[in-house]
Here is the input.
Amino acid sequence: MAISKVAVLGAGIMGAGIAQVAAQVGLEVKLRDVDQRFIDNGMNAIKQSLGRLVKKERIDQAAADAAVARIKGVTDLTEAVTGADIVIEAIPENLALKQETFSFIDKICPDHVLFASNTSGLSITLMASATGRGDRFVGMHFFNPVPMMQLVEIVRGFLTSESTIEQIRSLAAKMGKTPILVNDTPGFATTRLIGVLENEAVHALAEGIASAEDIDRAMKLGMNHPMGPLELADLVGLDTLLSCMENLYREYGDPKYRPPFLLRQMVRAGRLGRKTGRGFYDYSGKQ
Ligand SMILES: NC(=O)c1ccc[n+]([C@@H]2O[C@H](COP(=O)([O-])OP(=O)(O)OC[C@H]3O[C@@H](n4cnc5c(N)ncnc54)[C@H](O)[C@@H]3O)[C@@H](O)[C@H]2O)c1
Here is the structure.
């Protein structure tokens, strides 16, 4: 089945990026969030991102305008998924919230509709268990910022069919991405590795080993990482990092995944990184 209509749930960092890339390759997109102001934020982020691509002459203005015109923002969940060939979920990293959402739309969407979660590492099999379509349920894990990052991690749940995986491979390719296939395990291949690095950097900061700037400099200048782990944590969102580490710790029971108290306190204080203007660094005044 050819995929031409996509419902993206969540208009935050990832949902906006996924909607943008889908629209750029000609797919019709409905972008759903719980409140109009989140949709407006997402649409603004998309316009800014497309504007940067125009400035760099990667696309022309007509292509940018056409992409924006293909995205319809909606707050009603039923309206968002009606007519979609695939639903790509990018709501917060909370298993109960994701299960509740998938369970609701499972009753509305016809059988052929594919469900994909952009979760960073929660169980695809558990999410699928809230629906009656485990064979048509898959992880489609994009990376941040979505328009720039090449990888899509396709996550095969316990019941995911080969036909679903092939359809997701084709969709990822159409969106200009390179897929890898992983089995459904906590944190998959990517978050399990990078989460540990970011988490350890927060432990090092909390222990007073060095300043945030020097910890990041160590990894950029000493290890050739393009970004430091604390800068990366700010980009990802500290609430998302905390949820990922809590999930890894809970699932594997291994103390190497234990989130530092500093991370928890920063989330409690609303210092979530770039998206709230302050995390390990101050972004106020920067867009
Ligand atoms: N931030 C990253 O770098 C990154 C990378 C890969 C995957 N992810 C995953 O993508 C998902 C989304 O992360 P994000 O960084 O975009 O988060 P975010 O906080 O930027 O955005 C989440 C959005 O979902 C909205 N939302 C909440 N409940 C909703 C609902 N029931 N229906 C629709 N929208 C709802 C929120 O209002 C918010 O706008 C998470 O599962 C996260 O783990 C994040």
Summary: The two ends are 40 Å apart (CA to CA). Residues 45 and 146 are 12 Å apart (CA to CA). The chain has two domains: 5-183, 193-276. The longest helix spans residues 36-55.
